[in-house]
Amino acid sequence: MSTLWMGNLETYMDEKFITRSFSTMGEQVVNVRIIRNKMTGGALGYCFVEMTDEATAERCLRKINGKSLPGSSPATRFKLNRATFGKQDSGQMYSLFVGDLTPEVDDGMLYEFFYNRYPSCRGGKVVLDSMGNSK
């Protein structure tokens, strides 16, 4: 099993909605666990998505991260990352800014580009303006 973190969830997005969204994108999930406030029971805006194996999780990070979330209203994009609970990373971590991206570049494409050259890459994030366009 391999687990992904998924953020930017709206209050109406439940386990079935997230499972259906992955399925629409051609991916099957084992389990979805939405994280809730212990006092109120309200969703905190993120969840953990269990995939069958590491290859499936990696494919999701490359293929659907940053793509539009099917059925979301208002329109929302998949925001995925590796789940890191209970894991200690012994190496240093760095962030890199890349400018002048073309409009079609999404999180998954950016991650794949760097991961293919630097396998220690942990993720890619395209910063968007209020209109949903790359800054």
SSE series: EHEEHEH
Name of the CATH superfamily of the largest domain: RRM (RNA recognition motif) domain
Overall CATH architecture of the largest domain: 2-Layer Sandwich
Number of strands: 4
- What share of the residues lie within helices? 10-25%
Enumerate the strands of the largest sheet in spatial order, edge to edge or round the barrel.
Answer: 2-3-1-4
CATH class of the largest domain: Alpha Beta
Biggest beta-sheet profile: 4 strands, antiparallel
What fraction of residues sit in β-strands? 15-25%
Category from helices, strands and their pairing: alpha+beta
Report the total helices.
Answer: 3
CATH topology of the largest domain: Alpha-Beta Plaits
Distance between the termini: 35 Å
Count of separate structural domains: 2
Rg over alpha carbons: 15 Å
- What is the general shape? globular
GO molecular function: tRNA binding
Domain RRM: 2-85
Family: Belongs to the RRM TRSPAP family.
Organism: Liparis tanakae (Tanaka's snailfish)
Describe the structure.
This protein is an alpha+beta fold. It has helices spanning 15-24, 54-63, 107-117, and strands spanning 2-6, 31-36, 43-51, 80-82. The chain has two domains: 2-82, RRM (RNA recognition motif) domain (Alpha-Beta Plaits, 2-Layer Sandwich), CATH 3.30.70.330; 94-134, no CATH class. The chain has three helices and four strands, in the order E-H-E-E-H-E-H. It has a four-stranded antiparallel beta sheet with strand order 2-3-1-4.
Key phrases:
alpha+beta, Alpha-Beta Plaits, 2 domains, four-stranded antiparallel β-sheet, 3 helices, 17% strand, globular
